[in-house]
Write a structure and sequence with these properties.
homodimer, alpha/beta, 8-stranded mixed beta sheet, 3-stranded antiparallel beta sheet, 41% helix, 13% strand
């Protein structure tokens, strides 16, 4: 197949006419489809329904560290929940804090704590303008948290191995106002990239001039494989162990995409120094999180093997969906030279880069035809994609038949936007 | 009976000898009793056990405002939960935000939001030293929140009608750095005092020089009656309605002491302006709280009548405990002129003022005999009771036979400390 760029304008115009007709036909259907949301679909939610009936009046609410998990107390969670999350994260349970239903909230609280208390000589909010590194495309809600606190977000390009480490190393070595970096190290949002061993080692060995620099390691998709060739992520805590960077990493995860997004359990892994620092804040913030939901999860899963078996059920739902999306992209767009995309082994998204300057147009064309996508630019700090090329596709939520239709429309819009760009 | 003050020293010394013998006998038992914790006891926790099995795989998870309550979304909670809390609080559901498991956490987040964003020309944290009024004796965790944020806590004396309003009105009219007041308006912690209608009206009509002054109305015990003569609290939102103070009050409550402290649901009521302000922060902090726990509560209780019927079961457990505590105080200490105490109609505590300068000694004597009380001074800002006289008794948690023994020891210690004071 010939690329669009090497096709003559007359042929492109004819192609555009055909695409427009197909587009108009879809538009006439008055559709309302959504590929914007990184949410599990109903079929996935059903997988965990049996967890709802795990606790009964006959449950033993006494645990090794809590006389009654129905009552107040246990600020950092139940031991048995720490154990389970420790096993998921590959850390000792003494380094785990189990919290509420949202790891985003824990990260928000962590940034707030570092703003107010700091982790060095001075709180972050007493150091004038401070900055955070934002590998992009990345997760808009991460960038939103630092922006909320007035921290300047600095874009760092993503490579196929994770953040561009040459740039990261240079920046943190030069600028003491850079206080941290957002990372989704496995199946990154939106690209599904897993950081290479070298990237993890270089992050673990960073020499920031800011002694109060922190890596926010959001391992949201740590066990969220979607096919038979899962990625392996090096455990950064194993790498920093015994080094001077032992306090540099704070790791987060949750069961939002394991059990229920609306009723999961979130956890954090960190050094004892960091946990002590955070507890200085948490002790005033709450008496403790929902221990019955912790107990519900632990009794339902029993152990790590139980969790992993459960994830295979998610995979069974997600694998064909992702395959359909990447197959459609391959079939409709390969060889045209107008887009490239990721084929992730896990996570919740497929990331596609359309022709520079076309992402907003594609999203807008889709919207007109009744297909809602994540806003163009959302994957970059302040919502500004410098090339206007990245679009995040979320294949998990819509019913399969809707997803198929949405993908057909999406591919038409990508082609139309490309031809508009090439013929203008 | 003669007061200790009017008793001659010889008689007092003889009495002290008898008390010491009784004290020594208790001490020899090697007891470990606890009257410190404002926690429901096991019998109370059992009342709500049937709530655990309300949700099943067959539950309809779709609600009027949420396609699936198992999934992400609904930042401010499910409508049906807002309705239930609105009915409990006596406000329209449009003024309700339903959150996580802890109203303390919601209050903490509210203070954080006001520090960062403010509710006037400038955020609170950009106004130099700011202050908060702390009616005392009061709730130590309230005072802890403002202290954590570096806000100066100012003690305001409690009267039998609530905070001393002459002082409150004078302070807020003089000092623009006073940004708020902590209130537990019904069955206050620890005194069990319900603010009089006049107090509520005067609070509602405050004219603070600080335009960004806020009343934190922690209605923790709003329906927590313990006998047949419950207090009535004027609804402050009814009073401020249509006045220039509509944005001045933020109300909080939770089901921690209705269902499970470890797994309840918290809610907030506020003006639309205030909710919009808080959501500016919450939208970055989380995607939403545990909606399944909201659904669990709503389906279990059905409506306000269901909640009130449930509270009668708590009353049945608590009434005899509180009666035993106040009966013991009456029997052992009345007429001696060495203590006075409250006889609350609800809440979680009995507050006792022992002779000035004796509270620490009483707590210490109790501790030596194996009875843990809330630390003397804990009910005052910075843990400093100027008169060293207030002690908070928490009758709900220990088994009844332990409570009886603890009260016997407590009364002995109050008498011993008083005689020590009078004869030194």
């Amino acid at each position: 197949m010939q690329t669009y760029a090497s096709t003559d304008k007359t042929t492109l115009s004819e192609e555009y006419k055909k695409l427009s007709d197909a587009y108009a036909a879809f538009k006439a259907q008055g559709l309302s489809l959504n590929m914007a949301r990184g949410k599990p679909g109903s079929e996935q939610l059903n997988i965990s329904n049996d967890m709802l009936t795990v606790l009964t009046p006959d449950t033993c609410f006494k645990t090794d560290d809590c006389p009654d998990s129905r009552n107040y107390g246990n600020l950092d969670g139940l031991n048995m929940a720490k154990k389970l999350f420790g096993d998921i994260l590959g850390v000792d349970q003494k380094n785990v804090f189990v919290g509420g239903n949202s790891s985003l909230n824990m990260m928000f609280d962590t940034i707030a704590c570092l703003m107010e208390q700091g982790c060095g000589d001075k709180p972050w909010n007493q150091q004038g303008t401070i900055k955070f590194l934002c590998p992009a495309p990345g997760y808009d809600r991460h960038f939103g948290v630092t922006a909320y606190f007035g921290i300047e977000n600095i874009t760092v390009p993503m490579t196929e191995n994770g953040p561009d480490m040459d740039i990261v190393e240079k920046l943190v070595a030069e600028d003491a106002s850079i206080k941290g970096i957002w990372c989704v190290p496995k199946y990154s949002n939106p690209q599904g990239i897993t950081y290479s061993d070298e990237t993890v080692r270089r992050l673990a060995a960073l020499k920031p001039v800011a002694k109060d620099f922190r890596i926010i390691w959001d391992n949201a998709y740590i066990i969220h494989d979607i096919n038979g060739t899962p990625d392996q992520l090096l455990n950064i805590f194993d790498v920093i162990k015994g080094t001077e960077n032992e306090d540099m990493v704070l790791e987060f995860c949750s069961t939002s995409k394991i059990t229920f997004p609306g009723a999961g359990v979130a956890a954090m892994a960190a050094s004892e120094n960091n946990l002590a620092l955070l507890k200085k804040r948490y002790q005033f913030q709450t008496i403790g999180y929902d221990k019955l939901n912790m107990l519900r999860h632990v009794l339902y899963f029993k152990d790590l093997d139980g969790v992993l078996a459960h994830m295979q059920k998610h995979r069974a739902v997600l694998e064909p969906r992702f395959k359909m999306v990447t197959d459609t992209l391959e079939q409709e767009l390969a060889g045209l030279g107008i887009a490239h995309w990721t084929n992730p082994n896990g996570g919740y998204f497929v990331s596609i880069d359309v022709m520079d300057g076309c992402a907003k147009r594609v999203v807008s064309l889709c919207k007109e035809a009744g297909v809602v996508l994540t806003g163009a630019g959302a994957t970059y700090p302040y919502g500004k994609d410098p090339k206007d090329s990245n679009i995040r596709l979320a294949p998990t939520y819509p019913p399969v038949e809707e997803l198929e239709k949405a993908m057909a429309i999406f591919c038409i819009c990508v082609k139309m936007a490309a031809i508009e760009q090439l013929t203008k």
